[in-house]
Amino acid sequence: MSAGTVPRTSARAVGARVPRVEDERLLTGQGRFVADVQLPGSLHACFVRSPYARARILGVDADEARALPGVHAVFVAADLLPDVHEQWHTLTGPDAVEAPRPPLADGEVRFVGDPVALVLAENPYLAEDATELVYVDYEPQPPAVDYTAAANAADAAEAPEATVHAAFPDNVMGGVTGEGQDEVDAAFAAAPHVVAATIRQHAHVPAPMETRGLVAHWQRGELTVHAATQSPHEFRSFFARLLGVPEHRVRVIMRDTGGAFGQKIFVQREDMAIVLAARKVPAPVTWIEDRRENLLAAGQSRREHGDARLAFDDDGRILAARLDVVQDVGAYPTPAPINSAALIGRLFPGPYRVPAGTFTSRSVCSNTVGRSAYRGPWEFETLAREVLLDIAARQLGIDPVELRRRNLLRRDELPFTNPNGMTYDRITPLETFEHAIELLDYEAFRKEQAAARAEGRYLGVGTSTYAEPTTGGFGMYATEGATIRIEPSGAINLYVAGGSAGNSVETTAVQLAADALGVDVADVHTIQGDTAVTPYGAGTGGSRSGAMVAGAVTETAAVLRDKLARIAAHRLEAAVEDIELSGGRAHVRGVPARALTYGEIAALAYHQPDQLPPGMPAGLEASGRYTTPSPFVWANATHVCTCEVDVETGQVTLLRYIVAEDCGPMINPNVVEGQIAGGTVQGIGGVLYEHLAYDGEGNPLTSTLMDYLLPTSTEVPVIEHGHVETPGPGAGGYKGVGEGGAIGAPAAVVNAVADALSPFGVTITSLPLGPADILALVEDRR
After folding, report:
1. How far is CA 298 from each of CA 112, 330, 368, rounded to the nearest angstrom?
2. Model pLDDT for residues 437-462, shown as the tens digit of each residue
3. pTM greater than 0.90
4. Which of the chain's termini has less CB crowding within 10 Å, N or C?
């Protein structure tokens, strides 16, 4: 990726609101997305997709489609499966419990939109026309659409009406049971106050601006893939395993990716089909997903429910917490749904002083689109807990802000291990909460609310507080590499794995490298997203990019700084410890005139190796790899939302929205606030507007953006930011920030609406909250 024109500055780059280096390219239409990759002679792909939620495939007749001029091939499962070498995912391993994921439906379709056949033609319009000529003989079967019915059947030890996968006859893919079940039950039995509710969340989706896409080209025994992905190196590893070829024969290139939000972390079934088909034809293959396909088949998220319980003493202090969560994973979930459901349970106590707790989690299959990752996959733990806390506050007669004050952890109480084994450290739950409440002026709002109610207007305020595990993790997520090369001219190139999908990794990487080497931001160029030249990395996910890239750049720059200093010391006849590096120069401390520019040092390193210190290799290049010192680097935040609800129309108008976040020192405040705002808007949309709905037969009801509503700038208020900075344990003290907005926003919005409707005695435990839903709540209480 090439950097745009960046103003020069002599000030420190990290911590400054440096303009994004990618903006010039993107805002002038010079970005390069997958659809911009035009390879000569490319064939265009279109999938034949199932109109049934569940049916047997009795036969496929593609003769008429193949006879259409311009159609080069039509593939079905039997054509591609023999070429599948291995398809388990490195993030889960060969022994993980996963649903089978054939590239094309094999013998049975399992959701509306399931890919059955693949057409390759000279242009995308012809390919789409040809799909209408592929005749598939289906034998419809009763589908399992309601995942809760399957879960209930499993509870009753009864067979469900329909089985999605033979490997899971009760449709339960798996689950996790937390420790201390009996002890926690005893704590609830002895508690003076127990508050319980079943919280339900509906399905909604990432809906990135750029849909999925892939261009695959076999040439001279090597595969080159241009992909819209968050993790180019993992795509390379997966394709190599899938095809049974060495990794060095697979190259994945990602340039600009127009949003991803988790949907583009993993290789999906269509991606597999494209690379398998590309091996069979003497031309590149291009697939660009349209919006309807994206809503039908790219994956759903958030559909889950949980039986949540909190026990309190007479003073409103939490004694115990329990969550029994069940999530819908659809027909073909991307890897590790069981792990994400378990993490929801483990995080349920949140950043609160909870002495006892446990959980259960289950992942249940259904004949709907598979579950995919979505920004903050464990968001439900915050929704369930924070909504239940507001319900508890009303039942106990305690203001919801005061109830949280009595239970939130303070900085001086840390580290603190929650009853499910998660150890919180280096966060500021109570302090950040108080900062958000102060920014609102809570008491003034309560007075405004009372005056409005006297006029027949219904205002509400809601809060949501959470702690998020960011940055580190396990396996490949725990490490990241970087290469820095000072070219013979003195230009600086930084190579990092990539995965930038609107999250400004490009800009933050340049800022970090500029400061680490003592140069101007404009002197650094970054190359990302090409597995042929960049070091291996896990890509974007888990709010990891900024902190992990910071660690990799710090490790690598330290090696390069040492080499710069040693060369300068040798040339200037000074001690190495007397060399200072700043402003793109190496100079002798106290004698700034005795100096070499980095360009002059580079000229020595490349062109006059005999002038280097004895034993030093030529060139100015270093590679480093950073491993996080902690599997979890915690960030925390409080969201505060105020709103007005029109009880005659069900319309919700958001008035103010405040986010106070502790994500450690900020590399670029503009980027941090942009990430918070983007996630917050997605969380707002997930409550008030978005709903991936199905009817009882498994037919999707919201397969266009006319039906699937997304929030726009007219529905979202200006987001106000507050920052509390507690350094994390890694390089620079940086933490992750990418997912927090989407985690905290839903509960804050729900609690604000519930507070507005409290005069009617409304309790909200189910989403979404469209106008009709709100009117039904009010009418029910009236």
Report:
1. 12, 12, 11
2. 999 999 999 999 999 999 999 999 99
3. yes
4. C
